[in-house]
Write a structure and sequence with these properties.
The chain has 327 residues and is of the alpha+beta class. The protein has 9 helices and 14 strands. The strands form 3 sheets. Strands 4-3-2-1-5-6 form a 6-stranded mixed beta sheet, with helices on both faces. It has a 5-stranded antiparallel beta sheet with strand order 11-10-12-13-14. Helix 7 packs across helix 8. 39% of the residues are buried.
C-alpha cells in the first residue's frame, strides 16, 4: 500500500512549527506584494505541502493556498469523507472540494479579490492546470521554492529526517546478515515487516547480487556480496539508504571512504557517485553533485568493487555549517 497509518504526534512535531514556517512564507509574500501563494501537491510531489501544513496526500492532487493574511485553504480532489482525517493530521481547517481545482481556485481568488497570485515553482505545474490557469483572469507569478522554502534551515525538519535515517540504519544493519542464502523477495518481505512496524508509511526496497545496480526482487538467491537500497517515508519525511553485505573490515573501509566523499564532494574517478535531492518538491530526484550547497538535504550513493562484484553504500546527508555528512 502507498500509505500506512498516518497519525500526527504533536509532541514529535508541534503545530507551532508549521505556523512558524507559514509566517516565513507570509513575510516573503508581503515583501513581494503578493496576496497569496499556491502550492501544487499530489501523491508524489508531496514535500512542500507536507512541510507547510503537514498534509500528506495518499492519492489524487490538491492545491494549497496560503494567503498573506489568514489561514491556509486546501482545494482537494479527495472525497469529503476524508476531510475529518485531513483536519486531524494537519493544521488545515478550510478544505474545499476540488474536482475542478482551477475553477475552485479562481472562485477563491474572486472571493478574496485577488488579481495576481504567487505559484510555487510555476513552470512545474502539470500542463493541464498551467494551461487552464494561464487563460484565466488571474496573473500567475513564479516563486521559486529555493527562495521561498530554503532547504536545511529548519531543525525540526532535520530531526524528523534523522529519526527516519536512524530507523533505517538500525533495521538494515540487524537484518543484513540474515539475507545471505534467502530469496530476495523473502528478504524484502522481512525488511518491509520491520519497517512497517517501526512506522514507515511508504517504502521502496531494491536488491542486487553484485552484477548490476539494485532493482526490484525477482526471485534470486542472495549471495555473500549482495547490496540493499531502501527509500522510506516516515511521517512524510523521506530518506535513502544503501548497504552492502561485506566483512566488517570491508564495510568499515567503505563507510570511511563514503564519508570522505560526502565531506569533500570529491568525485573520484575510480568509483561512481550518485546524488539525489531530498528537499525539492519530490521525495527524491537526480541531482548533479556540484549543485549540492549549504543547507542541502541529499542522498549520496557510492558504488565500490570487490572481487568483481558491485557493492553499494549510500546514506542521507545534510550540508551543514561544518560541511556535509550523514544525518
Amino acid at each position: 500500500m502507498k500509505r500506512g497509518w498516518i497519525a500526527w504526534d504533536q509532541a514529535e512535531l508541534p503545530a507551532s512549527v508549521f505556523q512558524a514556517r507559514l509566517d516565513r512564507v507570509k513575510k516573503s509574500l508581503a515583501e513581494k506584494d503578493l496576496p497569496g501563494l499556491v502550492v501544487y501537491t499530489d501523491v508524489w510531489r508531496s514535500n512542500h505541502a507536507r512541510y507547510l501544513v503537514n498534509f500528506m496526500p495518499y492519492w489524487n492532487r490538491s492545491l494549497l493556498v496560503v494567503p498573506q493574511d489568514g489561514a491556509a485553504t486546501l482545494i482537494c480532489a479527495l472525497s469529503p469523507r476524508v476531510y475529518p482525517w485531513i483536519r486531524s493530521t494537519s493544521i488545515l481547517d478550510d478544505i474545499r472540494p476540488g474536482g475542478d481545482p482551477v475553477r475552485v481556485l479562481l472562485g477563491l481568488c474572486s472571493e478574496k479579490k485577488w488579481s495576481r497570485v504567487g505559484f510555487l515553482d510555476l513552470m512545474q505545474l502539470p500542463q493541464g492546470l498551467y494551461t487552464s490557469l494561464r487563460e484565466g483572469p488571474v496573473e500567475m507569478v513564479d516563486l521559486p521554492s529555493r527562495e521561498v522554502l530554503p532547504a536545511g534551515t529548519d531543525e525540526w525538519e532535520l530531526s524528523m529526517r534523522r529519526h527516519a535515517a536512524k530507523m533505517a540504519r538500525e533495521i538494515v544493519s540487524e537484518e543484513l546478515p540474515a539475507g545471505v542464502g534467502t530469496l530476495d523477495y523473502q528478504f524484502a518481505g522481512r525488511l518491509e515487516r520491520e519497517f512497517r512496524r517501526a512506522g514507515a508509511e511508504d517504502l521502496v526496497i531494491l536488491l542486487t547480487n553484485g552484477s548490476a545496480a539494485p532493482g526490484p526482487a525477482r526471485g534470486a538467491t542472495l549471495g555473500d556480496s549482495f547490496s540493499v537500497a531502501v527509500a522510506l517515508e516516515y511521517r512524510g519525511h523521506w530518506i535513502r539508504l544503501a548497504r552492502p553485505h561485506a566483512s566488517a573490515g570491508a564495510a568499515e573501509s567503505m563507510r570511511s571512504r563514503f564519508e570522505r566523499i560526502a565531506r569533500n564532494f570529491e568525485s573520484p574517478g575510480d568509483v561512481p557517485v550518485f546524488v539525489e535531492d531530498l528537499s525539492g518538491p519530490y521525495p527524491y530526484s537526480a541531482q548533479e553533485t556540484l549543485k549540492v550547497s549549504p543547507g542541502s538535504l541529499f542522498a549520496l550513493d557510492v558504488e565500490f568493487r570487490a572481487s568483481g562484484n558491485r557493492l553499494f553504500y549510500g546514506d542521507t546527508c545534510w550540508y551543514g555549517q561544518t560541511g556535509a555528512a550523514p544525518l
